[in-house]
């Protein structure tokens, strides 16, 4: 999970910077994915310490959950992007990318925790 957290953090950081640059630096809110990405990078680096691993990954998953919930409002306008009527299509697309990346990270993280619990509870341990 540490490597995945670092990868997701890097992807979101770059996506936010690209979105900000491609939108002509019109709005600082385009950097929201970068802010979430930087927080995930911090969690990933903290998770490299065995004593901090569990807490850092839990924090990363909480940040991802908040990111998913925060992006839902913009993602609801994805139909308007396809129809060509979206007021801020770049924001909708960037929010959709963020939602998909974070939802996958959450699913993999939850799956990892479930597997760890099963291994711990397995007979012979």
First CA to last CA: what distance? Answer: 22 Å
Fraction of residues in H or I helices: over 70%
Shape: elongated
Which radius of gyration do the C-alpha atoms yield? Answer: 17 Å
What would you note in describing this structure?
The protein is an all-alpha fold. Helices cover 79% and strands 0% of the residues. Helix 2 (32-47) packs antiparallel against helix 3. The longest helix has 33 residues, at 89-121.
Summarize the structure.
The chain is an all-alpha fold and 125 residues long.
Layout of helices and strands, plus pairs?
Elements: H1 2-22, H2 32-47, H3 53-75, H4 78-83, H5 89-121
Helix pairs in contact: 1-2, 1-5, 2-3, 3-5
Protein traits:
125 residues, mainly alpha, 5 helices, elongated
